[in-house]
């Protein structure tokens, strides 16, 4: 027997698997790292792509807005790179009082003071003003025009009033736009709810029952209207500079890209593919995937990345075990809770999603749809009543989940994913 130990919240979950059934441990490609995180950050800022250094872009007397990700992206280690970005700005003559931070929460909840301290680090948090974007504050938006897809681009007024906008974050696979990072700091990061909804609704084909576009998946931007729409919105905003990190399998910053928000992001996507794009031997009857622990499994909403990646490693109609503590339950956004709890059939869920599309509704819809098409087992602390109208099977331990998976067939083949939120399996069967 093979013992597997996977991250779960701040701890781990253990179970025994018959070793003969294990086809592959799907893990990110090894990264040769001979630089510290600080060296990686500094080297990128000193060598931006298709751009001057940040300190040479800004001038004394100019105002700067730095966009940062919310607490659910704390794994990006913003407290590591934000001080160096501020140093660049100061070196360019920008005074502290002319710098603001906006947490690009998109449609997520506002952050607490403690979370601001964590994101910026205690020293920066004391030095600078930090604001949370509010996508529902129409008076706090400025309208920039419509994209070719018909999306009205309304963006945070505080950000647009600054002379410069600096994008920060991380590049990873994303289930709607292909890759996160870059332009996503703007849309959905600091966009209005209307803008976000219209953009994300481009993920659906036209017509009830037609479902999601084939081009909408992790690792793809070709023919992806969500990606194109976001790029058009970003072009209206005209960000001055971008800094994005790429994380290694060990959870540390393995690389970073900075400079032009389009071409630097392109370079970053290639780096992500070289680390987290994994060619697998075959799809299996069962896949066991951990989100990677806290905060990647802070709630069900965040765990969608793991589920979507895990689907790429399992046969049609197979069994998926997702390990996600979900200490925050389904998530703080009302729409995902409504989508999961208020309906007991997929047709009604789809009608609601189409009537007023939101990303959180889509996430809820996808979890429920996957549970209809696969045997979906969730190892979690989540309240069982929250999932009673779905076909998601809830267990409290990985051992119990494995027992359910193998109850009728002891010979199920299995792929294991220890960092499911990041790793994208690629198979000839795809």
TrEMBL record:
Residues 281-420 form the Lactate racemase C-terminal domain. Gene3D superfamilies: 3.40.50.11440, 3.90.226.30. Residues 8-205 form the LarA-like N-terminal domain. InterPro entries: LarA-like, LarA-like_C, LarA-like_N, LarA_C, Ni_dep_LarA. One of its GO terms (molecular function) is lactate racemase activity. PANTHER family: LAR_N DOMAIN-CONTAINING PROTEIN, LARA-LIKE N-TERMINAL DOMAIN-CONTAINING PROTEIN. This is Transcriptional regulator. It comes from Clostridium tyrobutyricum DIVETGP. The lineage of its organism: Bacteria, Bacillati, Bacillota, Clostridia, Eubacteriales.
